[in-house]
Amino acid sequence: MTEQANTAGQNDQGPQFSLQRIYVKDLSFEAPKSPEIFRQEWAPSVALDLNTRQRALEGDFSEVVLTLSVTVKNGEEIAFIAEVQQAGIFLIKGLDAASMSHTLGAFCPNILFPYAREALDNLVTRGSFPALMLAPVNFDALYAQELQRQQAPAEA
């Protein structure tokens, strides 16, 4: 009975995905107009810049880094700039190139986003500003848009 279980486990070489670690790679906050900004009527405009990058590590491990950069203006003045680089190490095996690209470009950032959003909100509230409460992001749609953008010059 034990030999059958071991043999079945050895023959099961399908795709594998495992989150190994989530961590903050970089964190930044700047409030250049404080304390004056706190004395003004608060009517913020928020600009969010979102970026991902990945790199292969040893073996079947990959690092994915999700960067959220937020610039909040009150009128024409910058109230604060906050940035977080939320990273993760993932073990990914047995995927074809297209599936691997999608996993690294959309699936992994989707896992990292709630952690990045929480870190950003925490950072902003420590600066005495209201939490940002960023809306969820559709990384699958962003990934599809990026693929279309890359294919457009090739077709032209």
Automatic annotation (TrEMBL):
Native species: Aquipseudomonas ullengensis
Keywords: Chaperone, Cytoplasm, Protein transport, Translocation, Transport
GO BP, one annotated term: protein folding
Record's keyword annotation contains Secreted: no
Family: Belongs to the SecB family.
GO molecular function: unfolded protein binding
Pfam families documented for this protein: SecB
Localisation: Cytoplasm
Primary localisation category: cytoplasm
Subunit structure: Homotetramer, a dimer of dimers. One homotetramer interacts with 1 SecA dimer.
Gene name of the encoded protein: secB
Tagged with keyword Ubl conjugation: no
Function per UniProt: One of the proteins required for the normal export of preproteins out of the cell cytoplasm. It is a molecular chaperone that binds to a subset of precursor proteins, maintaining them in a translocation-competent state. It also specifically binds to its receptor SecA.
Protein name: Protein-export protein SecB
CC terms in the record's Gene Ontology section: cytoplasm
